[in-house]
Every structure is written in C-alpha cells, then in structure tokens.
Write a structure and sequence with these properties.
With about 170 residues, the chain is an alpha+beta fold. It is built from five helices and eight strands, in the order ββαααβββαβαββ. Strand 1 and strand 2 form a beta hairpin.
C-alpha cells in the first residue's frame, strides 16, 4: 500500500492528522453550524478523545483522518477513511466535513469520490460504506453522486443513521 499521508483533489489538499492539528479540529468541533448535522458541538474533552481515537487509528492501520486545505492553505475541513463496526461487521467508512463557507461548491463530492478511489485502489476494499443522519439531506445527495447506494438504517452510537454502500466499480 502506498503512503496515504497526503493526497490531492482538483481543489483541495489532504494531510494526515497529527497532534499539531488539535486547534484545527477544535475549531470545527466547537462550531455549531459545522457540527449541526454531526451530533452538535463537542466539548474540549470530547475533542481530545476524538483526536486520540483518530491518531490511534492512523498508528494501527496506516490511514484515517485528514485535514483538508484549500489552494491558499486555509483549513477547509476534514475527511476520513476508517474502520467502522456495523452490526458486528468490520467495514471501512468514508466521511467528510467542510466549514460552512465551503458548502455548495461540490467539494464534498470531490473529496468523497477520491476517498472511494483510495479505499478501492489503495486499501483493496471491494466495498466502502458511509453513514449519515436522517436529516442530513446534503450528505445523502453527496453519497448518491459519489456512487453509493442506500442499504439500510443502522444504529451508530445510539443514534439512527442511514447506511450507504459502494456498489461495484
């Protein structure tokens, strides 16, 4: 497997999460608009737990959460490929989140398509999943544009979600 420390899309650059990104993650986690469809803002303690979990995922698997930067180097958001337990089955999930000023530009679809490609080509996964809350219609549209198909409802951390799955190539 090639190094997944960084990758680029047409308009964004992704860099591997490091401890130095705490302030960037904290800014996202404390932004009510950013977190509105992701369960609401996190406390600083919750952000530290989230960071530790995602840094450990990188150490254990060689992939995980990336910070997304625009062409000017500003943090645009984050994206992720990570292991996710879905009803006792180990899946690899793709996910993304962008600061509100980056919404509506097609960037989430651009990132999701690259994550799907990386999952297939670099991680050799025949299937990639994504979960989203029922009220996150924007994310549902992105997943469909990316080529994922709604499979079923699932419970994730006590919250109902929709499970989408990639189908074929």
């Amino acid at each position: 497997m090639a190094s997944l420390d960084s990758f680029t899309t047409a308009r964004l650059r992704a860099e591997r999460l490091t401890a130095a990104h705490f302030d960037d993650i904290r800014a996202m986690d404390s932004d009510a608009k950013y977190m509105a469809l992701l369960g609401g803002p996190r406390s600083e303690t919750e952000t530290r737990v989230y960071m530790a979990k995602n840094l450990e995922h990188w150490d254990d698997h060689g992939f995980g959460l990336w910070i997304l930067r625009d062409s000017d180097g500003h943090v645009a958001g984050r994206c992720v490929l990570r292991h996710l337990d879905v009803d006792g089955t180990d899946e690899v999930e793709l996910g993304y989140g962008l600061h509100p000023q980056y919404w509506g530009r097609g960037l989430a679809t651009e990132v999701a398509k690259e994550l799907l490609r990386l999952g297939r080509d670099e991680l050799k996964r025949s299937s990639i999943v994504a979960i989203t809350r029922h009220d996150n219609l924007g994310s549902q549209r992105v997943l469909v544009k990316t080529g994922l198909v709604y499979e079923r409802d699932v419970d994730h951390e006590g919250v109902p979600h929709l499970l989408y799955r990639s189908k074929g190539r």
